[in-house]
Amino acid sequence: MKERNEFELIVSQPKNSLWKIIVSGLFYAFAVRAILCIVFLQHYSRLDPDEAEFFNKNIMVAMICLVGGIYFSVRLTILIDTANSKLISRYFLGFFSVNFKTEIPELKYVSISKNEDEIYLIDLWYRANKYYNMCYSEEKDLAFKFAEMVAEKLHINFLDATEKGNSKWIEKPNS
């Protein structure tokens, strides 16, 4: 596999925020509690009908809490290798990571738009009308520099959609 700096484009989510860490910790704590109840019931009880129902509920609680903990813990990094037409989605859960390799979809263009909170959103559009929200910025210059860099690296067009009803294509510097 290529080294990290050999990919044309790497888009990473930031480290998880404090609230996500707390919520995932609570999910994991409840999952551990449910698993411990399952183990104790299985080893130290004959499971009468009430205990069997409690046992089944604990299995469901453990599964839901594990899924919730994973949901709030996982981070995603997208690596794009245009030379080999590969897109790698790398999911991180703590120190562990899993890669999913796919072909790069037909990339259309990069757009930058502004939402009602005056935050600039950078989106990568692919196929007909699907997009991946790459990042956002509160600073216009930083958002434009990033979007231009993405368009240049991926050899696609760049759309400035910051003014509603007045979208304009930005010319590539070397075209």
Describe the structure.
The protein contains three helices and nine strands. Helix 1 (18-44) packs antiparallel against helix 2 (49-73). Strands 7-6-5-8-9 form a five-stranded mixed β-sheet, with helices on one face. Strands 1-2-3-4 form a four-stranded antiparallel β-sheet. With 175 residues, it is an alpha+beta fold. 38% of the residues lie in helices and 33% in strands. It folds into two domains: 1-104; 105-170, no CATH class. The longest helix is centred in the first third of the chain and has 27 residues, at 18-44.
What structural keywords apply?
2 domains, alpha+beta, 3 helices, 175 residues, 4-stranded antiparallel beta sheet, transmembrane, transmembrane helix, membrane, 5-stranded mixed beta sheet
Short description, anyone?
This protein has helices at 18-44, 49-73, 140-154; strands spanning 9-12, 75-81, 86-93, 96-103, 107-114, 120-126, 130-137, 157-161, 168-170.
Helix content: 25-40%
Q: C-alpha Rg, in Å?
A: 23 Å
Instruction: Tell me, rounded to a whole number, the average pLDDT.
Output: 84
Side-by-side strand order of the widest sheet = 7-6-5-8-9
Number of strands: 9
Query: How many helices?
Result: 3
What's the main sheet like?
5 strands, mixed
The gross shape turns out to be: elongated
**Beta-strand percent range:** 25-35%
Low-confidence parts lasting 5 or more residues at pLDDT below 50?
none
- Summed up, the domain count is 2
Amino-to-carboxy terminus distance:
33 Å
Secondary-structure class: alpha+beta
The helix/strand order is EHHEEEEEEHEE
Keywords: Membrane, Transmembrane, Transmembrane helix
